[in-house]
Amino acid sequence: MGILKSFFTNCAHPQGRMGRAMLRFMNLCHAPLTNWGLNLIDYQDGWTMLDIGCGGGATLKRLLKRSKDSQVYGIDISEESVAKARKVNAELLDKRVFVRQGSAEELPYEDGKFDLVTAVETVNFWPNLPDCLQEVCRVLKPGGKYAIMVEVVDNDSKWTDLCDGMTAYSPEQLQKLLADAGFVNIEIHRKKPSNAAIIGMKPLCI
Ligand SMILES: C[S@@+](CC[C@H](N)C(=O)[O-])C[C@H]1O[C@@H](n2cnc3c(N)ncnc32)[C@H](O)[C@@H]1O
């Protein structure tokens, strides 16, 4: 495996020294997409929020700033990501920020816990995405929002070839998958040709 491919394969599951470098890189490089996507949400004070595939924890910090007196949870399958996210959020760790290792396939949270769930540059790596989306719906409060942000929006083989374990979805495919999982009012927002946010709501009555 070439050095570039080894590095980018760490997007799927950061591990070791290269994984740590990738987490630093992603905390910086995903800032424009993440800030743009997070600004599409109308926040209220005191929200409880979850970032799935939290990587190096920069999104957790960004979420905290948007809702006063909020609590922010992060989950990631990678031990390296969890360690970095905890370090980046050390000041408020276990007070307002809670980070644990786990998968989107089986979220260790009770039904209806969250006002907002986010997923930045991560759904492309989730196995069995339809089941994962049902899990997201389960942990949201009725009326809660789910925001997916992605940079690769079409079948762009440049990235899927470079990064093992990655599936490219178009915004329309993600919109359909969200609808199939029970989400409503699903909007697609585009920033530039390769940046998209797909935001859906858990129905108020189900
Ligand atoms: C490309 S990185 C993005 C990290 C972060 N969201 C960001 O924007 O910088 C993808 C992250 O998703 C995590 N991930 C992959 N599959 C996952 C799963 N099934 N459940 C939870 N996290 C997962 C990876 O470990 C990795 O940290």
Low-confidence regions: none
Instruction: State the strand order across the main sheet.
Output: 3-2-1-4-5-7-6
Shape: globular
Architecture, CATH level 2? Answer: 3-Layer(aba) Sandwich
Overall mean confidence score, pLDDT? 93
> Quick one: CATH class?
Alpha Beta
User: H/E order of the elements?
Assistant: HHHEHEHEEHEHHEE
Question: How would you summarize the topology of this molecule?
Answer:
Elements: H1 3-9, H2 16-29, H3 31-38, E1 48-52, H4 58-66, E2 71-76, H5 79-88, E3 97-101, E4 114-120, H6 129-139, E5 140-150, H7 157-162, H8 171-180, E6 184-190, E7 196-201
Parallel strand pairs: 1-2, 1-4, 2-3, 4-5
Antiparallel strand pairs: 5-7, 6-7
Bound molecules: S-adenosylmethionine (SAM).
Question: Can you tag this structure with a few keywords?
Answer:
Rossmann fold, binds S-adenosylmethionine, 206 residues, 7-stranded mixed beta sheet, globular
Description:
This protein is α/β, with parallel strands linked by helices. The chain has one domain (3-201): 3-Layer(aba) Sandwich (Rossmann fold). It is built from 8 helices and 7 strands; from the N terminus they run H-H-H-E-H-E-H-E-E-H-E-H-H-E-E. The chain has a 7-stranded mixed beta sheet with strand order 3-2-1-4-5-7-6, sandwiched between helices. The longest helix is centred in the first third of the chain and has 14 residues, at 16-29. 43% of the residues are buried. The model has no long low-confidence stretch (mean pLDDT 93). The site of S-adenosylmethionine has 26 residues, from helix 2 and strand 2. S-adenosylmethionine is lined by residues 11-14, 26-27, 30, 52-56, 59, 75-78, 81, 103-105, 120-122, 125-126.
